[in-house]
Write a structure and sequence with these properties.
The complex is a heterodimer of chains A (205) and B (419). By secondary structure, chain A is mostly beta strands. Chain A has one helix and 17 strands. Chain A has a domain of 82 residues: Cupredoxins -  blue copper proteins (Immunoglobulin-like, Sandwich). Chain A is globular and about 55 Å long. Chain B starts with a helix and ends with a strand. In chain B, the strands form three sheets. A 16-stranded antiparallel barrel of chain B has the order 1-2-3-4-5-6-7-10-11-14-15-16-17-18-19-20. Chain B has a two-stranded antiparallel sheet with strand order 8-9. Chain B has 419 residues and is mainly β. Classes of the chains: A mainly beta (205), B mainly beta (419). The interface between A and B is medium-sized, with 32 and 37 residues.
Amino acid sequence: MSCAVVQAETINVIVVDPSGTPVPEVVVFVEQDGAKLRSAAPASAVMDQRDKQFVPHVLVVQKGASVLFPNSDTIGHHVYSFSKPNNFVLPLYTGDPHDPVTFDHDGVVMLGCNIHDHMLGYIVVVDTEIFGLTDASGHVSLRVADSARSYVVNIWSPRIRDGKQELTKRVDRPSTTVSKLTFVLQKKLRAPHHNQTEAVQWSEY
Amino acid sequence: MVRVLVVLAALAFALALTNRVADATEIVDGHNAIISLDIAYVDVSGLPSWTEGSVGKLRHGDDDFVMNRMFIDYSGRLTDTLNAHVVLEAYDDDLGDAIDFTQAYVEWRPVPKSATRYRLKLGAFYPKISLENVDPAWSSPYTQSFSAINTWIAEEIRTFGAELSMSRRPVSLGGAHAFTIDVATFWGNDPAGSFLAWKGWSVHDRQTRFGDKLPLPPLPQIQPGMMFDDQDPYVEPFREIDGRAGYYATAEWRYGKQFLLRAGHYDNRANPEKEAGGQYAWATKFEHLGLQATLPGEIGLIAQWMIGSSQMGPWLNGAHVVDIEFDSQFALLTRSFNRHRVSVRYDHFEVTQNDQTEEDNNPETGHAWTLGYQFGLSKKVSLAAEWLSIKTHRCANEYYDLPETVTETQLQLLFKLRL
């Protein structure tokens, strides 16, 4: 068996807020020049609906990926996105009656339910196969091809209020060798979405 | 007896409907019906109830076991974006038919094409004012009896018209903030204000149904040969008298579920000099402001303010013959402990008079304390207890040989069945 083994370097990305607290659930993706790590078809993904919430709240997929939207609640949901050109509507449903939605354009796809206005979710479509989400310690490991002359690391989260220049780091090689990249956010984060719904149980009728 | 049979038949029909849908709170085949029955033991002291044509502010005049309320709240999905909603209420009193509608409308919710979403309601519904009455059939999840403000809305305010709602959840703010503006135009609701002037504020949980006739106290000014003798001895608050549409507008800012601020204006644009079919048109307008916040310790706060005015009758000496101003405020604190909920509310209310018409004496001032406790025994059965005390000073009580200053109290023990 012959595999074209591409030498890859692991980079560790850490995102912290202005007080140094790690930020979880941040999308991290790497755009690199002149090299491809692998050329597999984009992996499909699932955006579930449970307890009138999108699960996960933030999903990152590669351009061209298909996403299934099963509804695990017993009540109907009417999922839509107005984020052009990735906009779509799934007519009211329970269970899993709809075909997956293919996202052919990169960008942030904001999800809503036409029945439950407070439901909010994000799919981040990226034009690269190198992406991930930070864990509870604000950390994610990504593999970048050794042959890449340079690459750009981008971060995104609905909670981040910093300007674009703070969300991008360019790494030129071989002049710089980086294995750990820390993003220190300048602005205080917005409250996480789940905190906004967990407080006093105001009626939703 | 016929009334009881009608109510039982409606209940049986509703039960048959919910048995078909396994869980009443689920959408199955696009149908969703919630049926509720409250049985109460009531212990009251004070004045005879307004429901018996007096000026008492409570719904029940005697100590008794009563069928406090039965309702059917039905919503049906006509299409993916079109919903029909009707609410039927049954009360054990003589103010109307055994069972009748309190709301009936269709709502269109097109799928948003941008961060601004639109909704259109057509039919008969409540203007978006109350922050208390947020449960099915406009019930309050906090206390059995509504605040003075929302009791008055339950009594006299209902709009038969169209409401356009525009809301925006700016992506730039992370989706936590939502801004909503509602504008509506409506027919009917011209006599609204009669009951507030001639009977005063109240604290109870009875919602006027489309066909109800609210009995007026035996006011001297509506007796034969007196100034307002065209008035029937009751108020039909939803009637159209002058052929002029009214309007309201509301603006709301919501931050997640932690904070909500709402302000609005209502004007029935009634011509105060018109009368038809035993009902006068009252030019009633008011401003309202509401606040809902989650305080430390998971305590919920709801506060509402209302200030308004109403005029009725011919123009005489620079004013309409009846010219009142009214205002009320309340603050409610509520806290859930698993299946228990405790709520406390303070209400203040007032009516002042600008006119010099001695024969029509409407001022009053008062306040109320309400303590509510609820225990959810199961998903379908809950128990509730409520103690309520209202102290009022009302000059017009002398017409009926009743004390001008009076304190009314009520203790209610409720068994609530919800299917």
